[in-house]
C-alpha cells in the first residue's frame, strides 16, 4: 500500500472517481478493469491495488511484482496531477511502463464499461 495525503478532504471523492478510469483495458471490448482503490483507514489514506485488498481480507491473491509496479505508477500519476501527495516517495520508485495501464478521459467514460474487481465497504452475502 502507498500512504498518501489529500490536499483537502473533498479530494477523496475526486481521487476515487479518477481511479475508476485507470486500469487494464480488455483487448476486444470497451471494458476497463480498475487496478487501484483509495482506502481510508484510521485517519490515513492509501492507494491500494485490488489484489492487496484481497490479501488484507485474508483471501488468496496472486499480487505480483508487476501489480506493485502498476500501483506505484498510478500513485505517481495522481501525485503528478496534483490530486495527492505521496508520504514516502521511495516506496513508488519501482514503476511499470505507462503503456501497461489505460487512462480513460472523463469525456469517454460513458462509452466504456468500468469494472471494479473489489468493492470497498460492501459485505458479500455468504
Account of the protein in words:
The chain has 126 residues and is α+β, with helices and mostly antiparallel strands. Helices cover 25% and strands 27% of the residues. The protein is built from 3 helices and 8 strands; from the N terminus they run E-H-E-E-E-E-H-H-E-E-E. The protein has helices spanning 11-19, 50-56, 65-80; strands spanning 2-6, 22-25, 31-34, 36-41, 44-49, 84-86, 102-103, 113-116. The strands form 2 sheets. A 4-stranded antiparallel beta sheet has the order 4-5-1-6. The longest helix is centred in the middle third of the chain and has 16 residues, at 65-80.
List the helices and strands and how they pair.
Blueprint: E1 2-6, H1 11-19, E2 22-25, E3 31-34, E4 36-41, E5 44-49, H2 50-56, H3 65-80, E6 84-86, E7 102-103, E8 113-116
Parallel strand pairs: 3-8
Antiparallel strand pairs: 1-5, 1-6, 2-3, 2-7, 4-5
Order of helices and strands: EHEEEEHHEEE
Categorize the overall geometry: globular
Radius of gyration: 14 Å
Report mean pLDDT, rounded to a whole number: 92
Provide the β-strand percentage band. Answer: 25-35%
Give the class from helix and strand content and strand pairing. alpha+beta
Oligomer: single chain
Task: Give the helix proportion (percent range).
Answer: 25-40%
Contiguous runs where pLDDT drops below 50 for at least 5 residues = none
Query: In order across it, which strands form the biggest sheet?
Result: 4-5-1-6
Short recap of the structure:
The protein has 126 residues and is of the alpha+beta class. It contains 3 helices and 8 strands; from the N terminus they run βαββββααβββ.
Amino acid at each position: 500500500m502507498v500512504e498518501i495525503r489529500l490536499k483537502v478532504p473533498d479530494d477523496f471523492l475526486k481521487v476515487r472517481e479518477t481511479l475508476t478510469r485507470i486500469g487494464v483495458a480488455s483487448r476486444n471490448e470497451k471494458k476497463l478493469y480498475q487496478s487501484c482503490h483509495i482506502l481510508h483507514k484510521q485517519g490515513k489514506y492509501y492507494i491500494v491495488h485490488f489484489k492487496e485488498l484481497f490479501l488484507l481480507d485474508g483471501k488468496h491473491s496472486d499480487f505480483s511484482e508487476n501489480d506493485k509496479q502498476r500501483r506505484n505508477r498510478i500513485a505517481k500519476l495522481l501525485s503528478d496531477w496534483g490530486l495527492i501527495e505521496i508520504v514516502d516517495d521511495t516506496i513508488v520508485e519501482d514503476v511499470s511502463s505507462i503503456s501497461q495501464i489505460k487512462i480513460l478521459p472523463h469525456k469517454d467514460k460513458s462509452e466504456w464499461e468500468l469494472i471494479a474487481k473489489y468493492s470497498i465497504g460492501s459485505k458479500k452475502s455468504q
